[in-house]
Design a protein that fits this description.
This protein has helices at 2-32, 42-56, 72-78, 84-104, 108-119, 122-129, 141-150, 155-169, 189-205, 208-220, 250-269, 275-289, 312-329, 332-346, 376-394; strands at residues 185-187, 235-237, 242-244, 358-359, 372-373. It is mainly alpha-helical and 396 residues long.
Length: 396
């Protein structure tokens, strides 16, 4: 009898622990939203974002794989709460934003701290200790790009490993699959995750083929654009060209925008003629997005649907696109729209500097998250938008 009572007590304690963790997470989110979005000073807001982001470089909050807010502790124990693929691009966005912030503030000590923490990041160390490209997928490529952009020690080894990974992901079409098990499918995420790295590898190695790969990856996606529009479908099936998923998924358009903007920047910097084609795409997409901005300056998770919930990651990425459109065209309306996007992000930032209202991880084409919370990737991209706008404010 005593044995059964002991077992029942242990099970009860475990159940209470699970419930308490769920309640703690739920109440923490609610408490964080008290007096949310009262930021008025752009620089103070950026400093708050950066403080939080810097603290996350030591222990980054995980973006969960599932939408459910129940049995979190049980999912953690089972190892199914989060996965490496998601955390790779989360860390990438975080470090890209912080590196831009350190450069904007001319803070060399912070820049060195960021390089050291990036070098010590578990995903970077594991990558170099066991450089087997078959272990990795496209998701990690943006983190490699962040390593190369930061000029970390060991960047040469990362570039070599990244080049091998790019080659291992090539399909018979000569372009990259998002998942090895789906060589005939293309996802818009790949343009934002892989194309900047391909261009960075071209710069570092001098291999012309990596420029060509980046351009082909973008041009290949033209068949998946909405007719008479610049909006990309979430994915497409190559054999028949069928578009899959939403055309106006905000973060999906954002992935496309990130790839275009980083390619344009690197191509312009290195005198590449392909920059002109990227510029045309950027301007066309920016023109189409302008009338879809919400009254607060942000974008809904479905950009073309006025009543859709505001979404922070898409707003940050599309704000960067609008800013790049201004730098290409000189048209003030694009710059004003980028500042409005920043203002919208300020409006959903908690008192402790955590950017809120980020849509959770997408489970697959057509399976979009209904969770709105923090996201390290979006935190970094919002910070990057802010400090890039500082350049325009200074007239740099």
């Amino acid at each position: 009898m005593t044995f059964y009572v002991s077992i029942a007590s242990v099970l009860l304690l475990l159940a209470l622990a699970v419930v308490c963790v769920d309640a703690w997470r739920f109440m923490g989110t609610l408490a964080g939203r008290v007096r949310i979005g009262r930021w008025q000073d752009r620089r103070a807001w950026q400093e708050a974002l950066a403080r939080t982001a810097l603290s996350w470089t030591r222990r980054m909050p995980a973006v969960p794989r599932k939408d459910q807010g129940r049995r979190i502790l049980w999912e953690m124990v089972r190892g199914t709460y989060a996965d490496t693929a998601i955390q790779g691009w989360q860390a990438a966005g975080l470090f890209l934003g912080l590196n831009a912030y350190a450069a904007d503030r001319k803070d060399e000590a912070l820049g060195e701290t960021l390089r050291r923490r990036l070098e010590e990041h578990e995903l970077v160390k594991n990558y170099l200790e066991a450089p087997d490209p078959e272990r990795w997928e496209v998701d990690r490529l943006l983190l490699d790009y962040a390593v190369l952009e930061a000029g970390c020690r060991g960047a040469a080894q990362v570039a070599e490993a990244s080049a091998a990974l790019l080659e291992s992901l090539r399909t018979e079409a000569g372009t990259l699959a998002y998942r090895r098990r789906q060589p005939g499918m293309r996802y818009v995420d790949t343009i934002g995750l892989a194309c900047p790295l391909a261009a960075a590898c071209a710069v570092r190695t001098g291999n012309e083929e990596y420029w060509n790969l980046a351009v082909r990856q973008v041009e290949e996606y033209d068949v998946a654009l909405l007719p008479d529009s610049s909006f990309p479908a979430h994915g497409f099936e190559m054999e028949r060209g069928y578009p899959l998923g939403l055309y106006d998924w905000s973060r999906g358009i954002g992935w496309y925008a990130l790839g275009l903007c980083e390619l344009y920047r690197l191509m312009s910097l290195h005198g590449r003629p392909e920059a002109e084609g990227m510029a045309r795409r950027i301007l066309a997409l920016a023109e189409e997005l302008l009338p879809l901005q919400k009254k607060n300056g942000g974008f809904g998770w479905m950009a073309a649907r006025p009543e859709s919930v505001f979404e922070s990651s898409g707003t940050a990425l599309l704000g960067l696109l609008l800013l790049t459109a201004f730098r290409i065209s000189g048209e003030e309306r694009f710059l004003e729209a980028a500042f409005r996007a920043e203002k919208a992000l300020m409006g959903v930032t908690r008192r402790n500097g955590v950017l809120d209202m980020c849509q959770g991880d997408t489970k697959g084409i057509g399976m979009y998250s209904d969770v709105w919370n923090l996201m390290p990737f979006a935190q970094g991209m919002a910070l990057r938008l802010g400090v890039e706008l500082n350049r325009e404010e200074r007239g740099a």
